[in-house]
Write a structure and sequence with these properties.
Helix content is 25%, strand content 14%. It is α/β, with parallel strands linked by helices. It folds into two domains: 126 residues, Oxidized Rhodanese, domain 1; 115 residues, Oxidized Rhodanese, domain 1 (3-Layer(aba) Sandwich). It has a six-stranded mixed beta sheet, with helices on both faces. The chain has a five-stranded parallel beta sheet with strand order 7-11-10-8-9. β8, α6 and β9 form a beta-alpha-beta unit. α3 packs across α8. The longest helix is centred in the C-terminal third of the chain and has 12 residues. The N terminus is likely disordered.
């Protein structure tokens, strides 16, 4: 059974066997998010006892940026209505394997939730292990959820601008072609390229072919050029896989990691900010 990189409160990453042994004592939450038209091949069903957290719906409204971090009141109301308290141990997963579930991990951490783990391999791994799924989510009895001091960090565009040229390391999770502006952005209105001084660690390079996180040695190698003791800012296309980088960095012991929530959807749309490679 995998229950790796244990914090003082809960393991960061767990496997299907671990979750099967703890069902009834933890609360699974489906945090699936997909690019448009990218759901047809995903497995259906829910791990028994699951709730669903819609990252696009439970978000701060913005005219152009989706799934921006919600405010504390919105988060607390949503999670409390699911029957989840601040003391519960939640296990987040998605239908891809590991893709958007770390974004939900980060969201919970932003509101001080101590006991939150990511299911390695997500729903596909649960099904492959022979475990049953349910057709509907569980309606928990509503409780009062009380957020507490953040256990993760977020930065704005202004804060990223201020960090340029300092010892802060910017790590971009997008594929190399988008990072280098040799492939087009999926959003036609965005410029290509990357922030000055940024490093590219594509999120896809951290996963196996069946969408598990790679072993710890491979993850260490992927971040070999990153100083875990210096400030780190993660970015991606719209903030989903930036949180995935933050999750892996947490497994590797880095503790000064901030997610740029607007990511390239915000930066690439602003003609006044510096870009390399466009």
């Amino acid at each position: 059974m995998l229950a790796t990189e244990t914090s003082s409160d809960a393991p960061l990453l767990v496997d299907a066997a671990w979750l099967a042994d703890t069902i009834g004592r933890v609360i699974p939450i489906d945090g699936t998010w997909s690019m448009p038209n990218d759901t047809a091949s995903l497995p259906n069903g829910f791990i028994p006892g699951s709730r669903v957290f819609d990252l696009d719906t439970v978000a701060t409204p913005h005219p152009t940026l989706n799934h921006m971090l919600p405010d504390a009141k919105t988060f607390a109301q949503t999670v409390g209505d699911m029957g989840v308290s601040a003391e519960d141990h939640v296990v987040v997963y998605d239908r891809h394997g590991v893709f958007s579930s770390p974004r939900l991990w980060w969201t919970f951490k932003m509101f001080g939730h101590a006991k939150v783990s990511v299911l390695n391999g997500g729903l596909p791994a649960w099904i492959a292990a022979g475990h049953s799924v349910e057709k509907a989510v569980t309606d928990g009895k509503a409780v009062t959820y009380v957020p507490s001091k953040p256990l993760a960090k977020v930065v704005s565009k202004a804060e990223v601008l201020a960090a340029l040229g300092t010892d802060a390391q910017i790590i971009d999770a997008r594929p190399p072609g988008r990072f280098d502006a040799t492939s087009p952005e999926p959003r036609a209105e965005l410029r290509g390229g990357h922030m000055p001084g940024a490093n590219n660690v594509p999120f896809g390079s951290l996963r196996t072919a069946d969408s598990h996180f790679k072993d710890i040695e491979a993850l260490i190698e992927a971040f070999a050029s990153v100083d875990p003791d210096a400030p780190i800012i993660t970015s991606c296309g719209s903030g989903i896989t930036a949180a995935g980088l933050a999750f892996v960095l947490a497994m590797l012991g880095a503790d000064d990691v901030s997610v740029y929530d607007g990511s390239w959807a915000e930066w690439g749309a602003d003609s006044d900010v510096p870009i390399v490679g466009s």
